[in-house]
Amino acid sequence: MLAPMEGVTDHPMREILTGLGGYDRCVTEFLRVTDHEYPRRVFVKICPELETGGVTRSGTPVYLQLLGSDAAALAINAGKAAALGAPGIDLNFGCPAKTVNRHGGGSALLRTPETVEQIVAAVRDAVPANIPVTAKMRLGFDNADHLVEIARRIEQAGANELCIHARTRTDGYRPPAYWQQVLEVKHLLNIPVIINGEIWNTDDALNARSQSGCVDLMLGRGALARPLLARQIAMQSKCQPLPQLPWEDVLELLKVLLAGAVDLPAKYAGNRTKQWLTYLKLGYPAAEILFDRIKRMRQVDEIARALY
Ligand SMILES: Cc1cc2nc3c(=O)[nH]c(=O)nc-3n(C[C@H](O)[C@H](O)[C@H](O)COP(=O)(O)O)c2cc1C
């Protein structure tokens, strides 16, 4: 699965990455729910795929992610997203952002397992049974003491799947990810458990799978650094040669991403390109050179010329 990444895996990026193959599913950036029901246009803005059957052009389902702490409001919006055609609803219990946590959302909820359970139960109740409700959590807020309890409550409340980013909120994004801490949950739960965090290459995928016991993987930043990572992992499982994406092809994808940013305000339009390059630098030395060339450019035309 392709991980949700706010400000990164927007619609154009999901199109690009799922178009390269290897993904069974992706998730939107989070939609923050406070106390009211959003109008249709808000859902379509975060998930334009709602207009195309809830799938990307390559047919990959896109689950819509909600973030919030008000169970009733989350339930209303989840029901609406499902009615609008979302093929699944994902609940965010992992966001570490201070503003989000201050309002009790994201990873802050991991301090109150009963609220997590109430939210999942309310959302499950509001969404038709044939539409999956999934949850994404970290190991805990500042420790993993409640991991098993929260995971059990999420299952008990009716979630269809649980993805675990194998770090606490306090760990932030610092390596390592503690894949082995997910093993107990994987054994205890009957729903699929998906391992996430710090999977940058095929060796990491092997290790994450063997240490966590999980078969299913969710790729975040590694998918940006190596756009073919999902396919490489799939090929590795079949003992087949790993496909590689030459830099020239990556350049073409960068052009597509830039072209897809035309609707953004001019001063932001180039930011996605720059941001992707910061991850591509990890897999492609040429990305570093290009990044240095464009990092101070503000005009989209200027950036576009640098890509040609
Ligand atoms: C820039 C950025 C934005 C993110 N936004 C979200 C989000 O909207 N929802 C969510 O559940 N996780 C979000 N995450 C967390 C990722 O989905 C993932 O759990 C995390 O990056 C660990 O995976 P990785 O080590 O493979 O990157 C975000 C991560 C990054 C780096």
Give a written overview of the molecule.
This protein is of the alpha/beta class and 308 residues long. It has two domains: 11-237, Alpha-Beta Barrel (TIM Barrel); 247-307, Bacteriocin As-48, Chain A (Up-down Bundle), CATH 1.20.225. 44% of the residues lie in helices and 12% in strands. The chain has helices at residues 11-19, 40-46, 71-83, 98-102, 113-126, 147-156, 183-188, 202-212, 221-225, 229-237, 247-259, 266-269, 271-280, 285-294, 300-307, and strands at 26-27, 31-32, 62-67, 89-93, 133-140, 161-168, 193-196, 216-218. Strands 1, 2, 3, 4, 5, 6, 7 and 8 form an eight-stranded parallel β-sheet that branches. β7 (193-196), α8 and β8 form a beta-alpha-beta unit. The protein is globular and about 55 Å long. The protein starts with 10 loop residues before the first helix and ends with a helix. The mean pLDDT is 96. It binds flavin mononucleotide.
Shape: globular
- How many distinct beta strands? 8
According to CATH, the fold-level topology of the largest domain is TIM Barrel
Under the CATH scheme, which class of the largest domain?
Alpha Beta
* Contiguous uncertain segments of 5+ residues: none
What would you call the structural class?
A: alpha/beta
Count of DSSP-assigned helices: 15
| CATH architectural type of the largest domain | Alpha-Beta Barrel
CATH superfamily of the largest domain: Aldolase class I
* The number of domains: 2
Report the order of strands and helices.
Answer: HEEHEHEHHEHEHEHEHHHHHHH
Radius of gyration: 19 Å
Strand content: 5-15%
The largest sheet is: 8 strands, parallel
End-to-end CA span: 32 Å
Bound molecules: flavin mononucleotide
Mean pLDDT: 96
| Helix content, binned percent | 40-55%
